[in-house]
Specification:
Layout (H helix, E strand, L loop, with lengths): L11 H10 L3 E5 L3 H10 L3 E4 L3 H4 L11 H14 L4 E5 L9 H15 L3 E5 L5 H9 L4 E6 L5 H4 L9 H17 L3 E5 L3 H10 L4 E4 L7 E4 L1 H4 L17 H17 L11
Parallel strand pairs: 1-2, 1-8, 2-3, 3-4, 4-5, 5-6, 6-7, 7-8
Helix pairs in contact: 2-4, 4-5, 5-6, 8-9
Length: about 270
């Protein structure tokens, strides 16, 4: 049983309480009903329906191709499997960048059609207007700074962000801006641990890190990476808790062998 198992449903208020009390927040990605049910049973605090579904579920090279309709499909599936975790959904590339009206429409569609609890957006001052409008409609927003995968072609690399003083300063300013606008939490991706720790200390809202060291208020990983389902991806910040890819290949191999040798099904496995 997890430390926080007694809570019926985690809310943005719960996360704020934990930040105030110094209790770390656990967060993983989820894209389907079955996995969401298992993560929920294990006691995960936050499930992120990430646009990383573009990579791990659909096989795209970047997060850019996934559509709003596809994100809604994944998010609705996850919500049906999550009875305790807070479910946050990424606004995908192209669903909020054009203007704040489009951003609001996209966020409303996600909330109405999926039953999720919050949306997540990449960017700082450049998306401030959209965040303001979405919050004004009563929709909680989680920010995302540092390495923002939707801007991959702008950066041209997935390398660590904010190593230079100017970019580090902008990250701190953007983080404070997101807090002042009313974001309930921020994800900080692939930035120096020192900078992430400083951000978490300055901000009153929870800061959740991925590749941002241990000085933040919580951690997030892509579930497929953490479980070793995705063998191609092994950055320094990833800890693999299982090698499920190997287990699945072995189990499938055993099934194939049993079918070929006619040892499956046996007498007890038929009617």
């Amino acid at each position: 049983m997890s430390v926080h198992q007694s809570i019926k449903r985690i809310t943005t208020h719960t996360l704020q309480q934990w930040k105030n009390e110094g209790k770390p927040i656990s967060m993983l990605t989820a894209y389907d009903f079955t996995m969401a049910k298992l993560l929920d049973r294990a006691g995960i605090d936050v499930m992120l329906v990430g646009d990383s579904a573009s990579n791990v579920m659909a096989g795209h090279e970047t997060t850019l191709p996934i559509t709003l309709d596809q994100m809604i499909y994944h998010a609705a599936s996850v919500v049906r499997g999550a009875s305790r975790a807070l479910v946050v959904v990424d606004l995908p590339f192209g669903s909020y960048q054009a203007n704040s009206s489009e951003a609001l429409r996209s966020a409303i569609r996600i909330m109405k059609e999926t039953g999720a609890h919050a949306v997540k957006m990449e960017g700082g001052s450049e998306v401030a207007e959209s965040i303001t409008r979405i919050l004004a409609a009563g929709i909680p927003v989680m920010g995302h700074l540092g390495l923002t995968p939707q801007s991959i072609y702008k950066f041209g690399t997935y390398n660590v962000r904010a190593k230079e003083e100017a970019e580090a300063q902008k990250l701190l300013e953007d983080a404070q801006l997101l807090e002042s606008l009313g974001c309930f939490a921020i994800v900080i991706e692939k930035v120096p641990a020192k900078l992430a720790k400083k951000t978490a200390e300055i901000l009153k809202i929870p800061v959740i890190g991925i590749g941002a060291g241990g000085g933040v208020d919580g951690q997030v990983l892509v579930t497929h990476d953490m479980l070793g389902l995705n063998e191609e991806f092994s950055p320094r910040f990833l800890r693999r808790y299982r090698n499920l890819a190997e287990e699945i290949v072995q189990a499938t191999g055993a099934y194939i062998a049993d079918v070929k040798s006619r040892s499956f099904p046996n007498d007890k496995e038929q009617y």
